[in-house]
Amino acid sequence: xxxxVVTSFPISHWETYGERFLKSFIEFWPKDINLLCYCDGYxxxxxxxxxxxxxxxxxxxxxxxxxxxxxxxxxxGNGGPKAPYNFYMDAIKFSHKVYAQSMAYEKIKELxxxxxxxxxxxxxxxxxxxxxLLDKIHDDQDQVPDIIFLGRKNAYATCSSFISYNLNDVVExxxxxxxxxxxxDEVLKLQCFADNYVFDxxxxxxxxxxLITRNLTFECExxxxxxxxxxxxxxxHLKGNKKYLQTGASINFKASRYIDLCSMVKHYERKNILxxxxxxxxxxxxxxxxxxEVNDTVHYTGIDLFEEASEHTDKEEFNVKRxxxxxxxELKLIDLAKEYEKKGKTFTYYLMKGNSxxxxxxxxxxxxxxxxxxxxxxxxxxxxxxxxxxxxxxEMCKDIPVIVMDxxxxxxxxxxxxxPEFMGVNAIYEETGGTLRVGQQRRLIIxxxxxxxxxxxxxxxxxxxxxxxxxxxxTRKVPVQVQPRDCVPPDNIQDNVRxxxxxxxxxxxxxxxxxxxxVLASAGPSLIENIEDIRKLQDEGAKVVCVxxxxxxxxxxxIIPWGCVILDPRPFDGVSTHGIVRKxxxxxxxxxxxxxxxxxxxxxxxxxxxxxGATVIGWHAFTNALMEMDELKDTQLITGGTCSxxxxxxxxxxxxxxxxxxxxxxxxxxxxxEDLDERDMYGKKxxxxxxxxxxxxxxxxxxxxxxxxxxxxxxFESLLKRDDQVDMDLYVYGRGVVPSIFKSSNYECxxxxxxxxxxxxxx
Length: 763
Known about the structure:
This protein is of the alpha/beta class. The chain is 32% helix and 21% strand.
């Protein structure tokens, strides 16, 4: 069969990947296979590779493409000056690829090829491509396909880095429809503008009308279709951001524990990394990127069987993954070295092919370690999984400062675990002391919660050999700087503001600070246990401020709050997240309570309280909808968080209070929920299991919470981290997430003047 390869790239990316693609094509592809290269931007560099089987074309000679770009230039994935770039909505970027295929299809007819193979230009061929390989991919088997592609089960669309088109009448109709999506701007009516999304839409439609296709990667569950394809051991596809420098945490890992891994490399400022089980090099690149975030010089040593792996070794080491060649990983590392060299940084590496039980003996040879710069301060053990191999790997590396072992298994929520033969790391870890301090060592498990298909959870086991090393960073924490988001449309909120301003008797304004104390009573389960403490503080003169969910409980227990803070634009007769009708919470307002109502609150709440004769005082919440209102310009907007409990601190701080006693801010369920699979009103899993690590005591408190309660806890944590900016004394009571955060923090109240300079004497 006769094949023609087609690709396209912008000249601006010549050094990034275009030149490498062409040079590797010339070196490793058959000389009788033509390459049509459509370049976006001219002229070509003077040293552009030339060969009898390569033709260059100016993609911008296509008038249809120019017209498409001109009339749709706003659809470039940029939603606005503050909006992040959206890869999936960049019609301009992907149009080049589709127009290149259309132009090539017409050209290839003249060459009388049987197949047109599209291959992304961000690919590097490193092993000879033979006609036998191509014929095997394209052979007729049961029936000759019209289109061959790389499917992905759990991705938004197929991998379009390789598509092969049979040059027949059926595919010609498909290609006409493909380009028509762009010539008619039909693509802009889709929910995604990426070429592979459009390709899939058309492919599925044409398959119903007789198009015959072949999916080369029907078992691919994720984004690695190209690696799983027949080209995987011949071509490296530097897909997406792999061709650019990026941090390890930004890489799209399939498992969260690898984010933990990269965080540890950065946290401990490691610069000489050893990895046992390099596999495809992706984790290696991620760790290297993380190391370069805090270093200018990094070395990586990797060990793997690579192409020496066999069915026998797979069975022996309980391996279920495919294998990669040493050369395919080496190309990625060479690429990294070049990119970091441009940034004035130095990256070196050494790859070893073979069994780690033999190759790790190099660590005992100082002369070889010096020669190859193998002086690891961090090792990631993820090679063979048999107990014998894990034991050997650990023994060889046991003195390295930071040791991380993958595949430590724990039970899932149903009590399931993998079969014992897969638990070599568990066996070795427990043999060596488990999660205990052993001499100067410190051992712990990083619970990532990554699920195993057959049952169980897979985690990282960490061993720290230097006593001065702190515990690993907690990547499970959601960023604590929570941005308030409006839960109803901005127009509705703004209408509420304008109507509420007509009903408020007064507004909160900034007041001079004073010695008054605030008791903030949130509505967590521990509130009732601390009623007497609240009563005592109130008797001593503290002002009690509640939220709507604690309003009735306090009154029923003889504590009349000084104030009640309300922040909720949702319907007054609706059900709250606690499962209570909101109106019932304020059905009997007390005449001695001041109701501090956010101006964005549903107008029916304010009307209800006014009709009941309550004292209502308004305040403006710092939120997007209010910031857009011209009439509120230069008005006091109160920050604090996403809920009324945290805004209560902001309101009373604005009123001059500086001492706060916080009760009932548990932010968690009391114990373990009966139904851990319970769903919320949106169909999402309701309960989140979280842990709060206390670095001072080396203990971890486990809680079950919800997304809304977790947001409240994050707001509080953010407040603690701003203690050098906010003048207030905080005291937290009870149990749950917030008290645990408070106890584990380094927060301290500011000292009194007497403590600093002694007692002041007049005269």
